[in-house]
Amino acid sequence: MEKSIQDSIHGVIKLEEWMVRIIDTPQFQRLRRVKQLGFASLVYPGANHTRFEHSLGVMHIARMLKERLELDDDVLAAALLHDIGHAPFSHSSERLLEKYAGFRHENISRVIKGELKDVMNDLGFSISEIEAMVAGKKRSIVNGEIDADRMDYLVRDSHYTGVAYGVFDIYRLTDKIKFDNSVIIEQGGIKAAESLLISRFLMYPTVYFHHVCRIARKMYEKAMEGIIEGGFDASKLLEMDDMDAMMLIKENEREFYEMLSNRTLFKRAVYVSRRAVDFREVMRINEKRAEREIAEEAGVDEKYVIVDIPPVEEMKESGVLVETEWGLRTLDEVSPLVKALKTASLENWRLGVYTKKEYLGRVGKAAMDYFGIERVVQKSLDEIFP
Predict the structure, then answer these.
(1) Residue 105 falls in the annotated catalytic set
(2) Are 127 and 112 in contact (CB under 8 A)?
(3) Neighbouring residues of 183: CB distance < 8 A, sequence distance ≥ 6
(4) Is the pLDDT assigned to residue 210 strictly greater than 70?
(5) Whole-structure pTM value
(6) 84 contacts 31 by C-beta, under 8 angstroms
(7) pLDDT at 381
(8) Disulfide check for 320: which of 145, 176, 208, 263 has CB 3.0–4.6 Å away?
(9) Which is it for strands 267-272 and 177-179: parallel, antiparallel or unpaired?
(10) Which residue among 60, 105, 210, 211 is the active-site one?
(11) Alpha-carbon Rg of the chain, whole angstroms?
(12) Are 291 and 381 in contact (CB under 8 A)?
């Protein structure tokens, strides 16, 4: 029997009986208690939406594409389950799981167990095939250069944060997508695809890499890392939700729990673009060792120093194939705008060093010496004014 859910983004989402069976399992219901944007609600109070509603939205978009492209139900199952492996506060736990449990959230076979595994087997789905789609090992509309996941999270995150940058013509884009072993954009969909990439370019520094979001995320990582190194099994995070994780921090790292709960966060001692540092050298630095050495130089406890060297976000959407009169070309080949965005996206990168307010001066000086920031800036000035 079909059911309906009223979604704030897509309106009415229809659920077939087999989908309801998956959704009603405890493993899927856990996603109701895992925030989509981690600690972003500390900046944007409305950003309390969850992986649960996002998963339904991705399935809805995948179904629109499935009906046009005549794909199997496996695609819809993959869309529903693509985030089942997210631990508390979503991407905030990703590095911890990768480092201490050898797990990425796309490795969904490790979390499809118990009642969910029984339902999947009863429905006749191949868990390994669905994992291959989720992980991008098998090309699909769920994980690719432009996919149902990106289309939903940009508009959904934009709506709940109140940041208007994530708006693009999702229905025009889905109407102009083909699938032939990979997603292909028809020529009439180029502007819609460009709009998606503009949204992505603006949303990353404004929401996903907002400095307060980064500080809270790194404080959470720091607290949880201490707990894990104290003997906690990191793989247990896969069974926990946001509240479970905060209670664990409350029991073991009370100071960090109070700071995160009351938004009395670390401040920026250093926050600079790639042009202020030797970028290639910085990307090879071990954050933990840098924290230890900066703390020692500043004369503060290492737990109060956080070094944040974020990965470079590749704009892989620019590589999606587009139909042109000259045959298939990548989007950045046919769109000067996308080519420029791809280059400009590197300018959003920031190196951050965070600490408590009372240590800002000491930690800032030690960090600038450690990363050679003044030397790089002076060298640049010398080149401009020889």
Answers:
(1) yes
(2) yes
(3) 139, 141, 144, 145, 146, 147, 177, 320, 321
(4) yes
(5) 0.93
(6) yes
(7) 42
(8) 145
(9) unpaired
(10) 105
(11) 22
(12) no
